Amino acid sequence: MESYQPEYDKNGLLSDTFWRTPHRAVPGRPCQTVQRTEVMSGSSYQQFQASVNDAWDLGDDDIISGIAETKISKAISQTAALNVINSHRNSSKNVNKNDVKHGSESVKPKVEAVEVKKNEIRKAGGAGSSGLLRHYPGRPRPVRLSALTSREESSESKLERFQQLHDSAVIDLDELKQLSWSGIPVKARAVTWRLLAGYLPANAERRVETLERKRADYKHLVRQYYDAERDDDTYRQIHIDIPRMSPLVALFQQITVQVMFERILYIWAIRHPASGYVQGINDLVTPFFMVFLQEAASGQELDNFPLDKLSEEQRDVIEADSFWCLSKFLDSIQDNYIFAQLGIQYKVNQLKELIRRIDLPLHEHLQTHGVDYLQFSFRWMNNLLTREIPLPCTIRLWDTYLAESDGFATFQLYVCAAFLLHWRERLMLEKDFQGLMILLQNVPTQNWTDSNISMLVAEAYRLKFAFADAPNHLHNAGKSDR
């Protein structure tokens, strides 16, 4: 692989593009030039964006070293930090227009800014947080057993209904989907996910035989592809991404866990040559891994759970089932990860047209300030919101995704629309490109729970059926970018 050197303009700043590697033809990295506008000055958001280190958007170590050398002034860093702090502070209370700070106001003194930031981090971290480490938006945070347990489990009747369905000789999948759509109890989740993903047969007589055969098949794939001579480029990219995908969760820093993820992703990439490995797919393994781990380590806290405590057979089951369920899950969105990720670009245009029809003032507000939908919603589509919401919320959201009878690909578009509309009032208060992008790329969801996800999918359901009789706008949106 050729060494990449960041391109600087005559002022010594990184080139004015949204993507960090604009001249390389990397799948999933369409070149998107941000047009200069009055609200996007070279001394504000451009420098802030150039200093942001987001692991999902880095291709190799050379790029990391280039970013490390990027300089940013104290005034700019304080302004950016205060915008994020104010965004998170307002997440737990109604926005007060009188408290909104405009660019003309002076920046707080350095000492006060540091104290505010510390207080915000302590509040967001709560018990079990790792010192003053920042809670990156959507990155998995310390995982508590109670966080993965649905609030609806206080009603034992729902769990009993799942158990009755699981015990059926032939499971009625339509009934199982209908029951799962509003959330699955943790004790029933692992089996239900295998069924909904199409990995576990509905016929009870075939389940044991199928699981044994598929798990044996996965072991054969490991010997055939991973233990043999590997493709250096594919393996290198996966090997770089895995250690930094979940920096705040001790579980994912264990070598045993990282090797399991490497095998899953490498074999998936080799078996899908049309796409290969695309950054972001590693995040999609995490929900399956956590659900099957919780099944194997029932009643245990998972944040610091040493995976070596499990038997080799238990670890093999978690790894094989995660691989096959991931493969089934991605089958319906395969075009999201082929060259140039055309499926995602198509859906971004659909989202743009959908918001234009639903909320024209919000759409025009984003357009007026130079915000392109690709700049924030590409990650939403690529990672299925796993970077935007906490891991327990992702698992709850995937209960609904897996239960969508016509596949979740279309429904996820409406979830993204509902997610954007959720922040409408706060977005309308932002008066420049910098403020809008900081909010859209750092949405304050650190305190979200199952109830927030239930409201989100309910709104997405309403939007889907509001446009069910007039679907042409979605097809037209994919052909033209208005």
TrEMBL record:
Going by the UniProt record, its keywords in alphabetical order are: GTPase activation, Phosphoprotein
Its protein name is Rab-GAP TBC domain-containing protein
Q: Name one Pfam family in it.
A: RabGAP-TBC
Q: Which SUPFAM superfamilies match?
A: Ypt/Rab-GAP domain of gyp1p (SSF47923)
Any GO MF annotation of the entry = GTPase activator activity
List where Basic and acidic residues composition bias occurs. 96-108
- State the function annotated in the UniProt record: May act as a GTPase-activating protein for Rab family protein(s).
Region span, Disordered: 89-108
Claim: Phosphoprotein is one of the keywords in the record = yes
| Residue span, Rab-GAP TBC domain | 183-405
Q: Does the keyword Iron apply?
A: no
